[in-house]
Every structure is written in structure tokens, then in C-alpha cells.
Specification:
By secondary structure, the protein is an alpha/beta fold. Helix content is 35%, strand content 26%. It is globular. It binds adenosine-5'-diphosphate, aspartic acid and magnesium ion (MG).
């Protein structure tokens, strides 16, 4: 008899039929003898809808009210899922994040979990009930409702799996696992049987939405067994594992595109010590999340600095940079919000030269211009025009033969 934490994403519980399909599956697994704890996201696109309406009623809503609003999506979903499970003859009980024991810090919109006091969930399991926990939420020491951020339900599931000592954490979604690239963009993308935590973390940092970055970090740190799989076909999916024996064999394992960032260029910056330090200190103080940074070769005592930030941080990044150029003597701040970051990832590139050359050649052959480059030990990323993103992913996926490799 296994104890499993199963998390269902928005598409997996988007309507009554889907909720019944999930409930039926849970009831079946329960009857087979496994103990199940569910974590559920808001239905369909409800989180996006709530964020949109908040922006319509207030320019800059307070974090406290935003979290109260957004967590309502999950609260609705857990009650419906619990009712549906009971409809299949299995006792179930829904819980908000607070009721499930999720104590967080008070950083509204992006709270961090401090502690999971899972006694109530444990008691529900012991009484033979299926607990259904609202994802991505908790309560602060001040007793305010908090939201763990976008994709936070994955983190809820992993943290609960660790607190309960579950045998595995299953993340059910609308594709059947982690693929060599987004299967909605490239139809020849292949599902991986397993992927290492290191590669999964690089994929998440490069912009792969599944599983959410923080949940992968948490699972890695606490040794939680992670299984990403389909809530539609129920077939076995992808296990995220520690280093496997032949993991070094594959040169490239995946291609990831990230359309969530924008580029800022501060032009004509005086080429002397301290200028970059001041600019990036100002950006950090304004809580702008800077990703890639490139400083061009200096000519005649001036240089250009370009960096990328999430779209949501762009207005702040531009105004902070404009203030700074006035003080430092730079000439202009330019921004471009239609860029994409395309990355190739694989542990095998550590010991194989030539991956960067191949990536650049493939992009060049397809007349895709590279605007910025950055690398880690197992990743190479290029910033290109947003309209070329799907094409770049498709040609890179083919060039590195990911459509023909079994992992
Ligand atoms: P959920 O809402 O179930 O938590 P998300 O919508 O956040 O799931 O993420 C699932 C989506 O991630 C899939 O529909 C798929 O289009 C996209 N995706 C992008 N890259 C990949 C990849 N390499 N492997 C699997 N899915 C990916
Ligand atoms: N519903 C929230 C979101 O869309 C949390 C989650 O699904 O993980 O981001
Ligand atoms: Mg999601």
C-alpha cells in the first residue's frame, strides 16, 4: 500500500466532466488500496481571469487583497473535487492551504513556505478519507491568506509529500510527461522516461513550465520522488531522478523557449568601474529580476549594457535605468518586449565541445539572428526575435536529433 500525493493542474479539472474523471480515477486507486492525498489548482484559466479582473478594478491592488482573491480559485476547485469523489462512494474532505497547515512568510503574491504542519491531513488519511488540498496557498504568522505564486500548486504537492513522507509525488497535467521540447509546438517531441534533477532545474530556469521551478528545487533538496504524468491518458510519465548511469551519454536532452522576458539596453554607458554595479544595485532594490546580462566591447570610452527581465518587471526596469542614466551620463534606454530566449540543455555538453557552434550554425542557416548569448555548464541560451521562436525550437530539436532519440 503506497501513500501518494497527486496534484492536478488547471486543465485537468477544467470542467465538471474533467472533475468527475479525476474523481473516478482517485476512487479506483483508493479501492486498490493506495492512500491518496490530492492537491488541486484552480479550474482552467481561472487564475488568469482573476488577475485580469483585479487589474481592471484597481491599477495597483495590494498584495493582501490579490492573495485573498487569487486563492479563491483553488478553494472552489477543492470543494468540487471532494464532492465528486464522494459521488463515487469514497469519503473525501477539502482543505484550504491554511487548514492543511501551510505556514508561509508574508510576501504576498509569492510567499514562501516556512512550515507544513500536516497533522490534520494525516488524521484525515487515517480516518479513511481522501484529503483534497487547495494548491499554491497558505497563511502567514499574521493570519493573512497568502499565495505561493504562479505554478505554486506543484510546490504545495511536493511540500506535502515531504511532510507526510509519501512514497511519491505525482504531478498530473495535460501532457503525458516531460518532453524533449513543448509537444504543442513540435509534434515530434518525445517523452522522456526519466530526467535528472540538474537537467530539470536547467529546463525550468530556461522557461519550461512543467514542473514549476520551486517544486523541483524542493523535491531535489528533500529527496521527494517526482513523477510527471497525464490526467487524460493516465499512462506512466516521466520520473525526475538523481544522476542515472547513462545520463552523460546524451549530448542534448531538450530545447526550451521562454517568451516571458523582455530586453533592456542602456546605451552609451561610461566605461569605468562602478557604473554596472550602480545600475544593477538600483534594479535589485526595485526588486527587478534580471536574467541575462551582456556588456558590449567598449569603443571610445563608452559601452552598451543589455539585460533581460520578466515582462511584468519591464516598466520598472526602464524607469530605474532612465533615472540611473541621468546620473551616470549614459545616452539612452531602449527596450524590446518581443524577444524569446531559446535554450538547449544536456549534461553531455560538459564533455563535448561544439554544441554552441552547432546551435549558432543551425540558427544562422535558418536566418535567425542571435541578439544575446549566455551559458551554464549544461545549457546554452540565445535571445532571438519572438516571431522566430517556434521555428528556432523546431530546427534545433531536429538538428540535435531529439526526434530520434529514446531517453
Ligand atoms: P498544469 O497547469 O497542469 O500545472 P502547465 O500548464 O503549467 O501545467 O504546464 C503544462 C504545459 O507545459 C503543457 O501543456 C505543455 O504545452 C507545456 N510544456 C512546455 N514545454 C514542455 C516540455 N518540455 N515538456 C512537457 N510540457 C511542456
Ligand atoms: N492556479 C495557480 C496558477 O495558475 C497555481 C497553480 O496552478 O499552480 O498559477
Ligand atoms: Mg499551471
Amino acid at each position: 500500500m503506497a501513500l501518494l500525493v497527486q496534484k492536478f493542474g488547471g486543465t485537468s479539472v477544467a470542467d465538471a466532466d474533467r472533475i468527475r474523471a479525476v474523481a473516478e480515477q482517485v476512487a479506483r486507486r483508493r479501492r486498490q488500496g493506495d492512500q491518496i492525498v490530492l492537491v488541486v489548482s484552480a479550474m482552467g484559466k481561472e487564475t488568469d481571469d482573476l488577475l485580469r479582473i483585479a487589474a481592471e478594478v484597481a491599477g495597483e491592488p495590494s498584495g493582501r487583497e490579490m492573495d485573498m482573491l487569487v486563492t479563491a480559485g483553488e478553494r472552489k476547485a477543492v470543494a468540487l473535487v471532494a464532492m465528486a469523489i464522494e459521488g463515487f462512494g469514497v469519503p473525501a474532505q477539502s482543505f484550504t492551504g491554511s487548514q492543511a497547515g501551510f505556514l508561509t512568510d508574508g510576501t504576498h503574491r509569492n510567499a514562501r513556505i516556512l512550515e507544513v504542519g500536516a497533522e490534520r491531513i494525516r488524521a484525515a488519511i487515517d480516518s479513511g478519507s481522501v484529503p483534497v488540498v487547495a494548491g499554491a496557498q497558505g497563511v502567514s504568522a499574521e493570519k493573512d491568506v497568502t499565495f505561493l505564486g504562479r505554478g505554486g500548486s506543484d510546490t504545495t504537492a511536493v511540500a506535502l509529500a515531504e511532510a507526510l513522507g509519501a512514497d511519491a509525488c505525482e504531478l498530473y497535467t495535460d501532457v503525458s510527461g516531460v518532453f524533449t521540447t513543448d509537444p504543442r509546438v513540435v509534434s515530434t517531441a518525445r517523452r522522456m522516461h526519466s530526467i535528472t534533477f540538474d537537467e530539470m532545474l536547467e529546463m525550468a530556469a530556461a522557461g519550461c513550465p512543467k514542473p514549476a521551478m520551486r517544486s523541483v528545487e524542493f523535491a531535489h533538496r528533500h529527496g521527494v520522488r517526482l513523477h510527471v504524468r497525464s490526467a487524460f491518458t493516465w499512462e506512466p510519465g516521466t520520473w525526475v531522478v538523481e544522476e542515472g548511469p547513462d545520463m552523460e551519454a546524451a549530448l542534448i536532452r531538450s530545447v526550451v523557449a521562454d517568451l516571458s522576458e523582455a530586453k533592456v539596453t542602456v546605451a552609451g554607458v561610461p566605461d569605468r568601474p562602478g557604473v554596472a554595479a550602480q545600475l544593477f544595485r538600483d534594479l535589485a532594490t526595485a526588486e527587478v529580476n534580471v536574467d541575462m546580462i551582456v556588456q558590449n566591447v567598449s569603443a571610445a570610452g563608452v559601452t552598451d549594457i543589455s539585460f533581460t527581465v520578466p515582462h511584468t518587471d519591464l516598466p520598472t526596469a526602464v524607469s530605474v535605468s532612465e533615472k540611473r542614466i541621468a546620473a551616470s551620463g549614459a545616452t539612452a534606454v531602449l527596450s524590446d518586449d518581443s524577444i524569446a530566449k531559446v535554450s538547449v540543455i544536456g549534461a553531455g555538453m560538459k564533455s563535448n565541445p561544439g554544441v554552441a557552434a552547432t546551435m549558432f550554425e543551425v540558427l544562422a542557416r535558418n536566418e535567425i539572428n542571435i541578439e544575446m548569448i549566455s551559458t551554464s555548464a549544461i545549457r546554452i541560451s540565445c535571445v532571438i526575435a519572438e516571431e522566430a521562436a517556434d521555428r528556432a525550437v523546431t530546427v534545433l530539436h531536429e538538428a540535435f536529433e531529439l526526434d530520434r532519440t529514446t531517453f
